[in-house]
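Notes from hallway chat w/ T.B., transcribed later so I don't forget. T.B. wanted the structure written out for a chain they're using in a teaching module, and asked if we could keep both sequence and structure tokens in one place. Agreed to drop them here.
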Amino acid sequence: MTSTQGPGDPTSPAKREGDPASSTPTITTRMILSLALPSLGALIAEPLFTVIDSTMVGHLGTPQLAGLGIASTVLNTAVGLFIFLAYSTTSLAGRHLGAGRRDLAIRSGVEAMWLAGGLGALAAILLAVFASPLLTWLGADAATMPHALAYLRASAPGLVGMFVVLAATGTLRGLQDTRTPLVAASVGAAFNAVANWVLMYPLDLGVAGSGLGTAITQTLMAAFLGWMIVRAARREGVSLRPSTSGLFGAALEGAPLLVRTLALRVALLATLSAVTAISTQALAAHQIVWTLWTFAAYVLDALAIAAQALAGFTTGTGERGAMRPLLRTLSRWGIGFGVAVGVALAITAPWITRVFTTDQTVIDYATVAIIVGALFQPIAGYVFLLDGVLIGAGRGRYLAIAGIVNLVVYAPLLWVIAHSTSLTARPSLALAMVWLAYSAVYTGMRALTNGLGARSL
């Protein structure tokens, strides 16, 4: 941000209704980076937990790592399905802030946090009760089931905290405060690493210790971010009580994004199912590749978070014409960052896999798949960027429809790969083909549909 306070500065007084829209600050690269760089730490919180878990669990053995792969996919799917708690709140809070109603921006966050707590509790209970049949459906065998079950049940209580983190983070982003979530994510990641090590090794809880450490960390992060929102609400005289209309409003705002995310997660589960049919070692390798892909995706998505906040703010002021230069600037940044991330992954692929496991076969499988995915990181950067722009602009319904179309194109290709005898007999090639389908076809379709949607902005 520039040193001069503007209406988007969370520390400045709220602009009131009727203030001239011309007070909207000019969107610059400096402003974008001031939002994007702090967002990076907050965005990678959940993937970083998975990286920490995968690194520690991988040294317990291949079955343990494969079990973690299945269980963490379930948990990440649960979190991902409700990512609208962050995205819709960012857009809504940003629009209120742009209209000069900081109080309504904070109020929308309070309602979203109440909704998040209830949904998180429900999700945790359902996962704990149905953990075994769910893991069986995903293909967990006798070797991986005990570890997957232990991790899933130990981690499930943390969903309450993680959902609240999503809602609070979205509110702060909409208020153009990306530094507070950065503090929470950074301290949380450090605490998570220490807690997991203590629980897994000195206390000898194994895979369950890793899941428990993550759950404790997520709960503490929620307490910190929730406290920050409560402080802001008290300063603005905003009620902390939930309302029926507010809860329904928060749910309806995010409903299209829930459909969109559901389509994305179905694609992920279909990908996992295809890999599970190959071999246990391929599944372990896939967990490594997916961990790195997700980490890279969240790095690229940091720019999209800036786009969400700025697009929401611009919509609130009514100056929609500012969207086009914002979109052009961010497109260049997204593709450029994608190139940088892709090169980094391709160069480090032969070595970075050894951080996760000592199984040479798993290392070989993962190295090839990482290089395949690295080739398409520029497209991924473009995709995630446009996701943020469209969400911030309130185009959730379009994203929901596009997500279904993309899935319909991708799913049949996965089925062909999973049922090809010539491929399943060669696990390394089969895994590489799965990742080629995901990164080239599925991500390519998302780039096409997002690009078409952005033309109307």
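Follow-up for T.B.: Residues 22 and 317 are 9 Å apart (CA to CA). Might be a good example for the class.
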